[in-house]
Design a protein that fits this description.
heterodimer; A: 226 residues; alpha/beta; 7-stranded parallel β-sheet; 8 helices; 14% strand; B: 7 helices; 36% helix
Amino acid sequence: MVGLLLVGLGGLLALVLVVLVRVSLVLRAGSRLQQQRRRRRSTDTGSVSVSVLVVAGSGGHTSEMLRLMDSLSPSYSPRHYVIADTDRMSEDKICSSERSRRQENSEDQFFIHRIPRSREVLQSWSSSIFSTLRALRFSIPLVFRLRPDVVLCNGPGTCVPLCVAALLLGILGMKKVVLVYVESICRVQNLSLTGKILYPITDYFFVQWACLRDKYPRSIFLGRIV
Amino acid sequence: MKTVFVTVGTTCFDELIECITSAEVTQVLRARGYERLVLQVGRGSFLPDTDSCSHISLEAYRFKASIAEDIQQADLIISHAGAGSCLEALSAGKPLLVVVNDKLMDNHQLELAQQLHADSHLLYCTCSSLTETLRTMDLSNLQPFEPGQPKNFANFLDKALGVR
């Protein structure tokens, strides 16, 4: 009986180890995408396009995100915006931002997808865990269907299940998705909860104040970028 | 007409609205040459009457789709510590006085207002020090707030992803 338990435990441990090794391999594969792109470019017509999954949160997060999106070249296409299903404001903001883009480049494509919100403002932590799991159930099929090159996010709770889903694509060896996180300009001394969760798993983690760069050595600091 | 615009965003901050419309504060504002006071009071329970002030012309409303016009018309903006309000006022290049609601604990938005104050982009006080701050403030000491550079982010990402 004890022997059987030990074998089971050993098997479980081995499985955890394999998954951990796989996760660390995926996390370190950031530069491989660049090589893939170079390869694709040399065989293609010469222009590179990057499909982006953009997590637009609520209010301030969406405004900051759209300022970042405005700065990206038309190579970042198609752009898939994911918003929480209870969010009405963001859709209008995204559409008007995209309209002003469209005048410059008619080839551009964008889509809006809705998923359940991970965490409403002031929601308790324990119930957040359940709603995040629920959001994950919607995030995984969405991310697996879209298979974006890049996930770009900046703080709302919805980022977490989407990034986890994108990471899962890599762990399963289906596609290495580059995870880019930009901490809100509001965060000067401490990362947001989402930031703390995503710091270890993102490929490029941007902060906007020197104080945070000093605390988080892996972060990228280019001054204020929104 | 020299105008002060007071904004509390989506919060309620009755203490600020009561304080700013008091005879003491409106007299100080008048003495500094401000003739018009526009209040955005949000979810607060106190919406002052237009004719409740003898020293200054007063307008008050709860919400507008966009406060951009009121910001443009203002010569001084008095705001709660909300990041959105602070950034909108500073981006418009207007002098900004942030009044902290010291009854709100653990407000993470304070971080940004405090940092911007440390960098001399805005003035900073509480309701109890509002009168004194308005009386003694020197707006010429404020440093201009340069806009953030999203282009730096785009260039970094282009390089990292091998775009172009």
